[in-house]
Amino acid sequence: MTERPENDAPEGASASSVLGQAFGEAARRAGLDPAQSTSTGAAVWKAIGGVRGIVESVLPLVVFLVSLTIWPDNNVLAVVASVAAAAVFTVVRLLQRQAPSAALGGLVAVGVAGALVLFTGRAEDNFIPGFITNVVYGSAFLVSAVVGWSIIGLAVGFLMDDGVAWRKDRRKSRVFFWLAIMWAALFFLRLGVQFPMWLAGGDDVVQALGTVKLVMGIPLFAPLVAVTWLASRAVYSDRR
Questions:
Q1: Is the pTM value of this prediction over 0.90?
Q2: Domain map of the chain by residue range?
Q3: What is the tens place of the pLDDT at every residue in 164-186?
Q4: Which InterPro entries is this protein grouped with (predicted)?
């Protein structure tokens, strides 16, 4: 496979090319380039960040929940503890001279959620940024599928040097349509389960929401990554 320049898209490039490059580079950084020869398990493991990625993803929330279990009325301590847990990962990456982007993104997310808890005084509001994320991501995947410009297709098309030619191939466009629908369904499923729980409230809503969020996180994300990886490689089997 020929090397593609890492620089920005040239002036005058179409919106589809710019989006394709952005999505494709994100997928490549996550280890999900279908042109690369690797096993499905290895691709999924890299996409979730391995053991470190899993820990970085779940530990701040676990710390938040445990803190509230031990000190139920101390939102400040729970927020500080969760933000500190996220900050440790960023500092470690910086000390090891690794790209801190993943941990830094997590730190920002945890910080925003924590600030909202401190502002409202409601521990359950820690989950509001997650609801917003699910709405935005779910809507983006759904709209891209409906209008015929699947986000998955744009990313894979860029990575496979296919541009947007996949849109003229009925098989490819159908596969990328359904992959985008599946990703939209994942985000809306999370929202559909968790948001009513938040609305209902209750004494144990924080612990219940936290548990459900963890269960609907990596355990649902990883299999869908595997399906996306396998399907994308299958439609370009002639290129490998």
A1: no
A2: 15-239
A3: 889 999 999 999 999 999 999 99
A4: UCP010219
